[in-house]
Amino acid sequence: MAARGAVLGVDVGGTGIKARLTGTDGQVLDEQRVPTPRDDPAAESLAVVVAELAVHARSVARQQGTTLDAVGLVVPGVVDEAAGRSVLSVNLGWQDVPVRQRVAEALRATGTDVPLAFGHDVRAGALAEVQSGGLDHGTVAFVPVGTGLASALVVDGRVVSGDGWAGEIGQVRIPTGPHAGLRVEEVASAGAVARRSGAPSAHAAMLRVVDGDPVARRVWDECVAVLADALAWLTATAGCHTLVIGGGLAQSGTLLLDPLTVAVTDRLVGVRVPALVGARHGDAAGAIGAALLAQGLLARTHERNHDLGLDHPRAVSA
Question: Which range has the top average pLDDT, 19-33, 40-54, 130-144, 279-293?
C-alpha cells in the first residue's frame, strides 16, 4: 500500500541539516536548511531541532491539504541502522549514541507521533542516485566529497551496509608521501580543501583556483591526487562500472571531474576504468534518500497494519 500523505527527509551533515518535505508524487512541498548543533555529544539538541523541523513540515503539509505521515533521518559516520544508533561520528562528536530513540522521543513530545526511519547519510544518498539514474545493475559507488569523505556501494540495486562499516574510505591513513599519517579525508574532502587553502568554504577555494591562486591550486591538486588513489583502490576491489561523485566539492563540475577522471584512469592500468559522473541530486541526495527510507517504512507499516486488520497505522521506528 503506498504512502497516503507527505514524508519528511532529514539529512544531518557535519555543519548543516537539510530537510525536504515531499508528497506522494515526489513533488517538493518545502525545504529547510539549519545549522547542525555543536557540542552535542548525546544528540539531545539535534533531537529538538529535528522535532522542530517536523512541526514546521506538519504545518506546511496541512496547508497543502495533506498530512505528515513519516519522517526519515540519516546521519554521518558509522551507523547501526537496525539498532538506531550512531556507533561513531567523528565530525559530530558522537560515540554509541541512540539517535533514533532520542529523535523519536522529541517527535512524540511535540505530538508528531509518526513512523521514524533511520539510516546512514551516504547510503541513503546512494539509494536516491541509483533509483533516479537507472544505475540499478552492476556495481556503482556513490562518493560524496563533503565535510568529510565516505562512499557507498550499490550492487545490482542493493546498498551494501557491511554492518555499518562499509565505505569508510575517508578514515584510511595515508602511509607515505607528503601527507603520511593523515587520514584520506584530511586532504580529499571539501572541508579539507577549505581549511588547507585558508578559504571560508570549499566554494571560495574553488573560485581561488579559477583565479589562479597558487596555494588554492596546490591544495586542489593534492585533493584530486589523494581522492584518485582512494577511488582507484575502490574500483579495483569492487569492480565499479560507475563512480557517482557528489557532495559540495562536486558542485565545481568539470574543475573536479575532468582531472579526477584523468588521475583515476592513470592509476588503473589493466583494470576496467569506470565512468565518473556528477551526482544528479547534488548535496540534496541525502535528504531525498531519507525521504525514500521514510516512504519505505510507511509502506511496510501500512501493510503490517492492514494484515492485522487495523484501521490506522501505529507509529513505529526502523
Answer: 40-54
Range 191-198 average pLDDT: 96
**What nine digits make up the cell of 313?**
497505522
Residue 29 DSSP code: E
Angle in degrees, CA 307, 308, 311, rounded to 5: 100
* The three grid cell numbers given for residue 123, joined into one nine-digit string: 547510503
Alpha helices for 198-213 (secondary structure H): 202-210
Gap between the terminal Cα atoms of the chain: 18
Residue 318 counted as domain residue:
no
316 is a domain residue = no
Q: In this structure, what is the dihedral angle of CA atoms 202, 17, 11, 105, given to the nearest 10 degrees?
A: 160
CATH code of 172's domain:
3.30.420.40
Cell of 271: 583494470
Number of domain units in the chain: 2
Q: Is residue 317 in some structural domain?
A: no
Residues 212 and 299 in one domain: no
213 and 82 both lie in a single domain: no
**Angle of CA points 103, 105, 107, to nearest 5°:** 70
Please, is 233 exposed, middle or buried when counting C-beta atoms within 10 Å of its C-beta (0-12, 13-18, 19+)?
middle
CB atoms within 10 A of CB 175: 8
> pLDDT higher for 307 or 28?
28
**Mean pLDDT of the residues in the chain:** 90
Does the residue 272 lie in any domain? yes
Going through 135-208 in order, the beta strands assigned E by DSSP cover 139-144, 152-155, 158-159
Identify whether residues 110 and 130 lie together within a single domain. Answer: no
Q: Would you say residue 51 has pLDDT above 80? A: yes
Ramachandran region, residue 43 (left: φ > 0; alpha: ψ -120 to 50; beta: rest): left
Domain match, 167 and 92 both: no
Dist CA 143 CA 133 (whole Å) = 15
Round to whole Å and give the CA distance between 108 and 116. Answer: 11
166: containing domain:
124-280
The amino acid sitting at 274 is P
